[in-house]
Structures are given as structure tokens and as C-alpha cells.
Specification:
It holds the Pfam family Acetyltransf_3. By secondary structure, the chain is an alpha+beta fold. The chain has one domain: Gcn5-related N-acetyltransferase (GNAT) (Aminopeptidase). Strand 7 and strand 8 form a beta hairpin. The radius of gyration is 16 Å and the shape is globular.
């Protein structure tokens, strides 16, 4: 079991804090929405109780998750999760934002806040993301953040919409630091 550290991260408009099962009520409407969940690895959730259980599993022995909240409101509008890989200096990042917050720049701000923490405070060497090749919004977000397309894994996931490929995007610490300077 890895030792977890999930500090509060403040950005211009957001406060990222540990995700907890009690965030279920705030995110359930989007997690139960077929359009929002189309590119997720599982079908939409069917109840708040199922959502509470799911959120309890998002933050497990290999993953940690930050709830995305507004600076002036502690209600979760999504989360950023980080999975530790390869002896801890490489990690995978994932993110979810409720439908009402789409197009607001909050996903970019939240993911950038966590990436900045990973590279500058934890000295991670590499961060990567795995997204569906048809998830144009996720790909655009990764590219705006400076991730580079690294490859395609064919037939990687069996999901509620069928067997799907994965697009892998990655970033190295020196690339992030150079872009932030």
C-alpha cells in the first residue's frame, strides 16, 4: 500500500481537496447522464448510493483523487485523479467535470494545478493520460496543456459502448517547467 498525500491545491478560481464519498450528491446527475459518461470506461451510474460507493473506490491503494470545487463553494464539480505507476516517478492522470461546468476552463485549470503539484512538489518524471480517440474535448484539453500524442493502443478497453482504442498522451517534467517559465 502506498502512502497517500492529497494536499489542498488552490488555483485562481478553484480549490482542489480530497474527494470523498459524500461528494456523490453533487456529481451524481452527471455520472448518471449517458452523454457525459459516453467516453467513460463504465456505464452511467444508477443511484446516489452506487455513486457514493464508486467515489470510495476512485481513491484506492493505487489512485488518489482531488475534488474540484470553486473557491467560494465546497460542492464538487468534478475531480482529478492520479494513479502511481513505475516506482512512483510516473503517473497517470484522469479527470471528470460535471456537464454544467463544461466549456468554463475549469477542467484545464484543475488539471494544470495537479500537474504543477506533481512536477514541482513531488518531482514526478512523467505524467500521461489515456483517452478514447473519439473524445475530442478530452484530447483538446490535453493538447492545450502541452501533452504530446504518444501512441494508440488498439482494442485496449472493453466498455459499455464496445471495445475501444486508447490514445496515450504524455508530458515530461522538463516540458511542463519550460512551458510555465
Amino acid at each position: 500500500m502506498i502512502e497517500k498525500h492529497i494536499p489542498v491545491i488552490e488555483t485562481e478560481r478553484l480549490r482542489l481537496r480530497p474527494l470523498v464519498p459524500d461528494d456523490a450528491e453533487a456529481v451524481y446527475p452527471s455520472l448518471s447522464d449517458h452523454e457525459v459518461m459516453r467516453w467513460w470506461s463504465r456505464p452511467p451510474l444508477e443511484s446516489i448510493e452506487e455513486t457514493r460507493e464508486y467515489l470510495g473506490r476512485v481513491d484506492d491503494d493505487e489512485w488518489r483523487a482531488w475534488a474540484i470545487t470553486r473557491n467560494d463553494d465546497d460542492h464538487a464539480i468534478g475531480w482529478v485523479s492520479v494513479g502511481e505507476k513505475r516506482q512512483g516517478d510516473v503517473c497517470e492522470i484522469g479527470y471528470f467535470l460535471i456537464r454544467e461546468a463544461w466549456g468554463s476552463g475549469r477542467a484545464r485549470e484543475a488539471v494544470a494545478g495537479v500537474i504543477d503539484y506533481l512536477f514541482n512538489e513531488e518531482n514526478k518524471r512523467r505524467v500521461f493520460a489515456d483517452t478514447d480517440p473519439d473524445n475530442a474535448a478530452s484530447i483538446a484539453l490535453l493538447e492545450r496543456l502541452g501533452f504530446q500524442h504518444e501512441g494508440k493502443l488498439r482494442g485496449e478497453w472493453e466498455t459499455h459502448i464496445g471495445v475501444r482504442d486508447s490514445m496515450i498522451y504524455g508530458m515530461l517534467r522538463e516540458e511542463w517547467i519550460r512551458e510555465q517559465a
